[in-house]
């Protein structure tokens, strides 16, 4: 019984930053990287199943990214699990979710996993496509934005709740194997101590290229993607004003602004 | 008859020896530990015993009563041992006797007075238990609800009384025996004429005589009394290793083994090891198991603890007693039970709960007042280490630790903004990484990022500049010093930040490190040396005091203010610096009115031990509010003076939430010094100019 958890090291923007010279992404000098928050919850869900059902459940974190992305895998392995997988080579630069999901699906097939728990979305690009695309490629059912899960490893179905718009929740039964994309709040992820992260360095991480997975050059990177970023820019800021003074002075200023705006309208 | 008596004596000694064996076996089931400085420890213990200094603190009458019992008991023990030495050992073997003549008379007098002291002390202790009804002696636990299995501690009260009654009956029957012997032998001039060398016995004999007790009655009562006295004494010896009586030995051992700075310098641990922290009762060191056995339940820590005082589920005493009960029930058996039964942290009987461990502020009030030298804080931190290893903690603590992992500060600000507070100054602070400086200022997280305390940092910079001090800071290379990281139990992360800081500091040229933050001060001074960082570290108030003495600070005027001063735990209790801040204040003309709890009894603001990261529940009184209410009772003061960024953060809130912000200003020692210097107003560089600079 195997659960694959694809995770991503996301870029976190500093308050002030600059864009890359080609204008298609943020200058990497201004990015810090950390494990995508949603993936933390997905990994925690897998950890809990392993703890509850024992060593028969193998949980494997997978990342598609360069060497630095290994930090994310280490953070996962610090909390549990025996090994990780990282897939990367230069041909995979600029892959979009379509290309990435192809890689993940290949790993899932190669490892013959029984379930895939992905994060609902990644906090940097926010496509929310990768997980669900993996399901499409594997031909498995999928449920997105899962906020509660009752699943016994090896069972043919799982009971789950999904968050819908407007505060609604959907209760559903899904056929397994399946791909679930996990929502924040489904559990409380534990802390990975620095000691644990260091010790996780002893755990093996298998490094694969796209050819190892039997993928051709045009199935990954720009060639294997269905979309490409043309330009990234900072939208113009709206106007803001900090109103200081006593409550009466503040009220007066607010009234002035309202009148001014009414005049403009 | 004598045979029976000696058999009883041997039985008592066997029971005692077996008890000692069981106790030693229990300690040996703890972790081993190397102990430097045992000789100094023993000397310190002897000093402590002879002076009874700690026992008298904050409970003078109990301390004095204990002194009577202790010295009385010790003299009686020596007295009885002397008789045994002569009667049972020296005389049968060598025929030598010394127990006669004037030696005997002086001996009688001393032992009589010792008996009087013992009984007097015991009577006060009985009075205290029965009529003073002290809350600290009813053993109500804050960490359990009344319906829980291990809530009931009524046995402790019974044990206290059993102890008192046994001892007092031994004393009283001793005197009765003495009086009885005088009556019996009243016709013997060598006895009767010297009776006032045993004044208590003589008085009692006179009384009995007056009541009509005859020689013959006295003679027949003698056997009964003698057997009661003897058997009680044997019982006392026999039960010693299993009851609170054992504190006679364990307290002395515990005091001798006391670490000089148990809460200021936490135990290092091998972070490469398979496990970390104390999870099982057998993970405690033998020294810690011994500490647990030294507790006499006196309740001084229970009273001093800020968590307990404000209703949090922690009493240092109950933590110690829970662990002791656990150790006694699991480690005294012949065969050591399995791992599951040895768990020390959890919700089960005699286990320490997570919420109890997280309630601690590591303020060391418990450690400081404990008369038997128990080191509560290191035990709590060791148990927290196990929780952190399992990832179990409040989400707010988790966020703070992740911030430290990612950004080097607990607040979660970008590293590059660490020195942003300096932009408001009209001069540039030297970069100590690039230039040689005399004083390297370790700014710390809260001085760097907390908006209120940034003003203090700016003020301190201006004082240093105006006083001509050659100083610099580490800019974005500085990381949190790690004091709180270590105290929540994240040892790996502590070592990481400490080693990074040590590497940065070692590459700089400077003479002294100064910091305004007592937490950073403590860890730099006491904990970095273990990791190879030996620096000369002073707190800002210590530096200001020296500069004032040397007349290096250009003071323009004195302040005519009456204030109260709050000792921060990390400067005060942990590092014994009570004088410097007060000296600074009085030399600038400030009149200090002390709060009732001052100096070593200062009441923690509640922020220590990583608690600054966890919001206290709204419905509970915060320790800082409790403290502010104490200050507010003082009339005619207009300020609450602090020396610590975390205290400032806590008390700025508390002064408002207790409704005292209209009459009390929370102010830093540094700010009061600056007020005497007539420095130019801070914002010589405007906000707009700073923003313009940032835009570029």
Describe the structure.
The complex is a heterodimer of chains A (265) and B (696). Chain A is an alpha/beta fold and 265 residues long. Chain A has one domain (2-219): Rossmann fold (3-Layer(aba) Sandwich), CATH 3.40.50.620. Helices cover 28% and strands 24% of the residues of chain A. Chain A has helices at residues 37-53, 70-79, 97-111, 130-138, 194-199, 247-264, and strands at residues 2-7, 9-13, 31-35, 58-64, 84-87, 115-119, 142-150, 157-163, 169-175, 178-182, 205-208. In chain A, the strands form two sheets. A nine-stranded mixed sheet of chain A has the order 9-8-7-10-6-1-4-5-11, with helices on both faces. In chain A, β8 (157-163) and β9 form a beta hairpin. In chain A, α3 (97-111) packs across α4 (130-138). Chain A is globular and about 70 Å long. The mean pLDDT of chain A is 93. With 696 residues, chain B is mostly helical. Among the domains of chain B are: 261-389, Fumarate Reductase Iron-sulfur Protein, Chain B, domain 2; 396-675, no CATH class. Helices cover 55% and strands 4% of the residues of chain B. Chain B has helices at residues 2-28, 38-51, 53-56, 60-94, 101-132, 154-184, 189-192, 199-210, 215-239, 247-256, 286-294, 300-304, 306-309, 316-331, 339-342, 354-359, 365-369, 376-389, 395-407, 445-449, 451-466, 483-488, 491-506, 518-527, 540-549, 579-587, 623-632, 645-657, 669-675, 687-695, and strands at 430-431, 439-441, 471-473, 512-515, 537-539, 562-565, 591-592, 639-642, 665-668. In chain B, the strands form two sheets. In chain B, strands 1-3-2-4-5 form a five-stranded parallel sheet. In chain B, strands 7-6-8-9 form a four-stranded parallel sheet, sandwiched between helices. In chain B, β4 (512-515), α24 (518-527) and β5 (537-539) form a beta-alpha-beta unit. Chain B is elongated. Classes of the chains: A alpha/beta (265), B mainly alpha (696). Chains A and B meet through α5 of A and α19 and α23 of B.
């Amino acid at each position: 019984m195997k659960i694959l958890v694809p995770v991503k090291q996301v870029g976190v923007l500093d308050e002030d930053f600059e864009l890359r010279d080609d204008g298609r992404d943020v200058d990497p000098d201004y990015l810090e990287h950390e494990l995508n928050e949603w993936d933390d919850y997905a990994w925690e869900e897998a950890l809990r199943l392993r703890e509850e059902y024992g060593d028969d459940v193998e949980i494997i974190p997978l990342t598609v990214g360069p060497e630095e992305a290994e930090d994310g895998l280490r953070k996962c392995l610090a909390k549990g699990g025996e090994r990780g997988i990282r897939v990367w080579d230069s041909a995979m630069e600029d892959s979009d979710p379509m290309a990435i999901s192809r890689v993940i699906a290949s790993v899932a097939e190669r490892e013959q996993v029984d379930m895939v728990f992905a994060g609902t979305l990644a906090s940097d690009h926010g496509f929310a496509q990768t997980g669900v695309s993996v399901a499409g490629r594997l031909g498995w059912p999928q449920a997105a934005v899962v906020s509660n899960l009752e699943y016994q490893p090896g069972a043919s179905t799982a009971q789950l709740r999904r968050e819908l718009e407007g505060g609604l929740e959907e209760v559903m039964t899904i056929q397994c194997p399946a791909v679930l994309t996990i929502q924040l709040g489904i559990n409380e992820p534990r802390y990975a101590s620095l000691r644990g992260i260091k010790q996780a360095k002893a755990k093996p991480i298998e490094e694969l290229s796209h050819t190892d997975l039997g993928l051709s050059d045009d199935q990954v990177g720009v060639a294997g993607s269905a979309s490409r970023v043309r330009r990234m820019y900072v939208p113009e800021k709206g106007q803001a004003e900090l109103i200081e003074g006593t409550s009466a002075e503040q009220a007066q200023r607010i009234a002035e602004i309202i009148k001014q705006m009414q005049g403009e309208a | 008859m004598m045979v029976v008596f000696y058999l009883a004596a041997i039985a008592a000694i066997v029971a005692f020896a077996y008890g000692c064996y069981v106790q030693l076996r229990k300690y040996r089931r703890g972790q081993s530990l190397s102990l430097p400085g045992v000789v100094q420890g023993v000397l310190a213990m002897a000093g402590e015993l002879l002076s009874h200094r700690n026992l008298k603190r904050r409970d003078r009458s109990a301390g004095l009563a204990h002194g009577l019992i202790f010295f009385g008991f010790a003299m009686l023990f020596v007295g009885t041992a002397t008789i045994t030495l002569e009667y049972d050992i020296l005389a049968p073997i060598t025929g030598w006797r010394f127990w006669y003549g004037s030696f005997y008379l002086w001996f009688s007098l001393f032992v009589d007075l010792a008996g009087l002291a013992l009984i007097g002390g015991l009577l006060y202790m009985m009075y205290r238990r029965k009529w003073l009804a002290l809350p600290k002696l009813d053993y109500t636990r804050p960490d359990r609800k009344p319906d829980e299995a291990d809530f009931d501690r009524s046995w402790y009260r019974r044990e206290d009384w059993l102890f008192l009654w046994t001892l007092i009956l031994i004393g009283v029957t001793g005197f009765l025996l003495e009086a009885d012997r005088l009556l019996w032998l009243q016709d013997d001039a060598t006895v009767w004429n010297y009776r006032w060398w045993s004044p208590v016995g003589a008085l009692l004999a006179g009384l009995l005589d007056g009541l009509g007790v005859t020689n013959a009655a006295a003679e027949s009562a003698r056997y009964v009394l003698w057997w009661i006295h003897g058997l009680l004494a044997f019982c006392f010896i026999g039960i010693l290793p299993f009851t609170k009586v054992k504190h006679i030995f364990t307290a002395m051992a515990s005091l001798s083994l006391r670490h000089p700075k148990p809460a200021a310098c936490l135990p290092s641990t091998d972070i490469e090891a398979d496990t970390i922290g104390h999870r099982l009762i057998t993970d405690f060191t033998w020294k810690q198991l011994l500490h647990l056995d030294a507790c006499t339940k006196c309740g001084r820590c229970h009273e001093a603890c800020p968590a307990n005082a404000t209703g949090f589920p922690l009493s240092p005493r109950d933590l110690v007693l829970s662990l002791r009960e656990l150790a006694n029930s699991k480690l005294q058996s012949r065969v050591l039970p399995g791992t599951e039964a040895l768990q020390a942290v959890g919700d089960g009987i005699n286990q320490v709960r997570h919420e109890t461990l997280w309630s601690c502020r590591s303020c060391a009030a418990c450690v400081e007042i404990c008369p038997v030298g128990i080191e509560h804080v290191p035990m709590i931190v060791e148990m927290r280490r196990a929780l952190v290893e399992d990832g179990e903690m409040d989400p707010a603590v988790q966020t703070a630790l992740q911030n430290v992992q990612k950004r080097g500060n607990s607040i979660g600000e970008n590293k590059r903004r660490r020195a942003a507070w300096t932009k408001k100054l009209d001069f540039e602070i030297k970069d100590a990484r690039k230039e040689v400086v005399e004083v390297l200022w370790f700014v710390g997280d809260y001085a760097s990022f907390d908006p209120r305390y940034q003003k203090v940092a700016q003020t301190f910079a201006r004082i240093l500049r105006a006083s001509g001090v050659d100083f610099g800071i580490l800019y974005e290379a500085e990381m949190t010093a790690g004091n709180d990281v270590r105290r929540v139990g994240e040892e790996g992360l502590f070592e990481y930040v400490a080693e990074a800081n040590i590497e940065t500091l070692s590459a700089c040229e400077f003479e002294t490190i100064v910091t305004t933050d007592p937490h950073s001060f403590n860890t730099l001074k006491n904990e970095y040396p273990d990791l190879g960082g030996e620096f000369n570290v002073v707190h800002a108030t210590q530096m200001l005091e020296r500069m004032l003495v040397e007349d290096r600070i250009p003071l323009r005027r004195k302040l005519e203010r009456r204030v109260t001063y709050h000792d921060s735990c990390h400067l005060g209790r942990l590092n014994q610096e009570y004088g410097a801040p007060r000296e600074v204040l009085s030399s600038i003309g400030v009149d200090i009115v002390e709060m009732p709890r001052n100096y070593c009894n200062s009441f923690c603001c509640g922020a220590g031990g990583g608690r600054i990261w966890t919001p206290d529940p709204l419905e509970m009184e915060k320790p800082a509010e409790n403290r502010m209410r104490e200050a507010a009772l003082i009339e005619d003061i207009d300020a609450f003076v602090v020396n610590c960024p975390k205290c400032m953060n806590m008390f700025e809130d508390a002064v408002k939430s207790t409704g005292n912000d209209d009459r009390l200003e929370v102010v830093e020692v540094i700010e009061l010094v600056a007020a005497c210097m007539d420095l130019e107003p801070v914002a010589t560089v405007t906000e707009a100019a700073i923003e313009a600079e940032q835009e570029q």
